[in-house]
Amino acid sequence: MGIALEPGFNWWAFCILKKREAIILLVKYRNIKYLKKTHMYGLLMPKLVNDALTIDRYTGSTLWADAIVKEMNNVRVAFNALEDGRNGFQFVKCHMNVDIKMEDFHCKACLVTDRHMTNVPATFIHPSVIMHETVHIALMLGALNLLEVMAVDIMNAYITALCKEKIWITLGSVFGKDKSKKAIIVRALYGLKSASHSFQ
To answer: By Cβ atoms counted within 10 A, which residue in 10, 41, 151, 182 is the most buried?
Structure first.
């Protein structure tokens, strides 16, 4: 173990290493669990866009295709055609996340970027967020004043903000006739490291 046996480290190093191993095991288990997951609320869950379309053909419905088309109509504003070189721009890939909503079992698709492929300044990554205690206090005040608690979800909220990173992508099959074209991301697309900072 080397340095972990030294007096300045031996009182905490083994505990931290044990925690590290536990976290690594959880991550591995999570990945295995995700790969094995085929259904949600009794409906088939796709891993890729092609899987989603295959499921639609198999079930004789257009649930996933409709969800993907809806998402692409919403996020298309985030892309501009790339005409002049890519100097100063970082390449990133995109993929489609899918989910089934518990309320009415409708299918949801969300185009996100692979954030691990870009490097951005640390100041772009950490947005200011509210603390849990603030939410607890607000809920307590609401309960004391007999107020109803309501939740809202703003669809594609990040798309309203301009992208602070210089990113380009190769458009995939979900872009239809624009497939294989090059484009730059001009809006804060989900998955970008700077997206939450841009949305502030």
So the answer is: 182
